[in-house]
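ingest -> validate -> predict -> emit
validate: passed (alphabet ok, no gaps, 124 aa)
predict: started
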Amino acid sequence: GLAVAVAESAFADPSRPFGVQVELRDVLPVSALLFGEAQSRVVLSCDPAKTDALLAVMAEHGVPAERIGRVGPVGGAFRVATGGATVEAPIEELAAIFYGAIPRRMDGTPEDVETSLESEVQHA
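emit:
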C-alpha cells in the first residue's frame, strides 16, 4: 500500500532512514488508502525546488500527479495523515522492525515466534 511504499522508501538505506511528512486527501477508506495494493500508484521524490517541473512533465504526459508531502531529516519522524487517521512513529523504529522481521522469526525462541504469529492473526 501507499503507506508501506513511503515507509520503504524512507528507510531504503537502513543506516540513514529519512523522516517523511505526508498528507493524503483521497476519499478511499483508510485501510485501503494506506495498505491496499489495488490503486496502482507510484511514489516519487525530488528536490523541492524541482517539484513544479516534475508535476509539469507528468501533466504533459497525461499522468495524474500531486505533491503529497516532503522528505524530512535523517532519523526524523514518519508521519502519514489522512482524513480519518494518522500513522506516526520514529522512522528508525520502523526501520528496525522492518529489517529485523525475518531474523526475529528465524532466530527467535518458540515463544517469540508464537507471539509474532498471534500478533499477525489478531491484526489481520
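The mean pLDDT is 84.
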